Amino acid sequence: MADFHQNGNVATLHNLRSAPAELLVHELTTFAQTRKISLILPSLFSELEGDALPKILDELAEVPFLHRIVIGLDQADEAQFAHALRFFGRLPQNHVVIWQDSPRMQAIHARLDVHNLTPGEPGKGRNVWFCMGYLMACKDSAVMALHDCDIVTYTREMLARLVYPVANPNFPYQLAKGFYPRIGEGKLNGRVSRLLVSPILLALKKTIGDRDYLDYLRSFRYPLSGEFALRTAPLPDLRIPSDWGLEIGVLSEAWRNLAPRSVCQVEISDAYDHKHQPVSPEDASRGLSRMSVDICKSIFRKLAADGTVFSEEIFRTLKATYYREALDLLDCYYNDARMNGLSLDRHAEENIIEMFAQNITEAGRVFLDNPAETPFIPTWNRVHSADPTLMDDMLAAVAADAADFGPSAD
Fold first, then answer.
1. What is the rounded CA–CA span in Å between residue 241 and residue 264?
2. Each residue of 62-81: pLDDT tens digit?
3. What residues does each domain of the chain span?
4. What are the pLDDT digits (tens) for 201-214?
5. Does the structure show a pLDDT above 70 at 384?
6. Pairing mode, if any, of strands 11-13 and 263-267?
7. Are strands 263-267 and 228-231 parallel, antiparallel or unpaired?
8. pTM of the prediction?
9. What's the rounded mean pLDDT across residues 57-62?
10. In what order do the strands lie in the sheet with 143-146?
11. Fold for domain 11-185+212-278+375-409?
12. Which 3 state secondary structure label does DSSP give 137?
């Protein structure tokens, strides 16, 4: 992946393999003395029982520049939360586990509901939103990084490369988006990015015309990567979706709130693999099927907010245009995989393209049928305005949960 190409829209910071990782770590440790760096880990309890997360903790335990780690724990009962506190207890950094399903956190949810500020349905977006709120309530971090807990090829160099652009005070960047090639077990991966996002952005340009926002999204090597870092100043005004559109939603917020020169993408790995979602063509509420609908809705919402008018006719045209673009790109992916000794099942990928084409129509129908839908979780600035003590009370709730179920409570 090492090259020096710049696309002209967002800065691309490459890994040219000319500097040792230890140099980045040394600089970050220096920066962290005055610009504290924190990490958010959104996690399902099931990931504690997988192979990836224990190895991630082994790597994180050796990171000297992290001030705080905030773990958002979803889908856990009391016994599982107590286990999670012990599981993450080996981290040497200041860390906290937010039990998202605890009675105390449910009371926080109820207070939000009173003000009509519900954070949406359970999912990664809502988990990350509460973790961001906790981090803001701590009032001591200048930089926040986020990555998933299912990365089977994780190394601490990935984190160093991710946070460096926003931690370096001499750089102008407010947001850094990670990118990498998606290969693993001899296969070309990254199906949603390759087979949905890239062709639908091309199809949208043909269907609705040139839009700066579309060019901006197309500038990212891997717009669906779960790894990003940002300076904490923009966090209070960040509006993110609660569904699978989180990654596109964060990029859209950067487009809305930040100057173009303050956004960059950074190469963090040349060997990345993680847990793969099932395609789930028979169930639109799961897997890649649901993910594709949520991503499409996120893109449609942003374009509508910028003045694009959608209709059933436009979505029908978009579906047909997408299908042709996706099949053309599939030829490119197949040839690329073949030249690099990787496998690619063309029949299976054409089936996925057909499912995505149907889901574009479904996303368009949902978008048109729900004009009053509030798609984003409220900003933390709005929450603080409605309930000025909620963030401090959330800190107390998390601390009380830890005290009740932590090792000292045994």
1. 21
2. 999 999 999 999 999 999 99
3. 11-185+212-278+375-409
4. 999 999 999 999 99
5. yes
6. parallel
7. unpaired
8. 0.93
9. 98
10. 11-13, 263-267, 175-179, 228-231, 143-146, 37-44, 66-74, 94-99
11. Spore Coat Polysaccharide Biosynthesis Protein SpsA; Chain A (3.90.550)
12. helix
pLDDT on residue 18: 81
User: 258, 96, 226, 92: which is closest to 159 by C-alpha?
Assistant: 226
Decide if 172 contacts 178 (C-beta within 8 A).
no
Q: Which two tokens stand for residue 184?
A: 């693993």
Closest by CA to 159, choosing from 172, 169, 145, 142, is 145
Report the alpha-carbon distance of residue 227 to residue 213 in Å, rounded.
21
**380: enclosing H helix or E strand:** helix 380-386
Report the candidate in 242, 202, 247 with the shortest Cα–Cα distance to residue 223.
247
Q: How far apart are CA 242 and CA 348, in angstroms?
A: 29
Tell me the C-alpha distance between 223 and 251, whole Å: 8
Rounded to whole angstroms, the Cα distance separating 188 from 182 reads: 6
Position 275 confidence tier, pLDDT thresholds 50, 70, 90: low
Amino acid identity of residue 179, one-letter, is F
The CA distance from 129 to 44, in Å, is 15
One-letter amino acid of 302: K
Whole-angstrom CA distances from 100 to 129, 153, 244, 280, 399 are 11, 27, 18, 27, 13
d(CA 250, CA 230): 10
| Cα–chain center distance at 67 | 21
What residues are paired with 39 via a beta bridge? 69, 145
| Higher local confidence (pLDDT), 397 or 239 | 397
| Tokens read off for 410 | 């045994």
11-13/94-99 β-pairing = unpaired
Mean pLDDT of the chain: 92
DSSP strand pairing (94-99 vs 66-74) = parallel
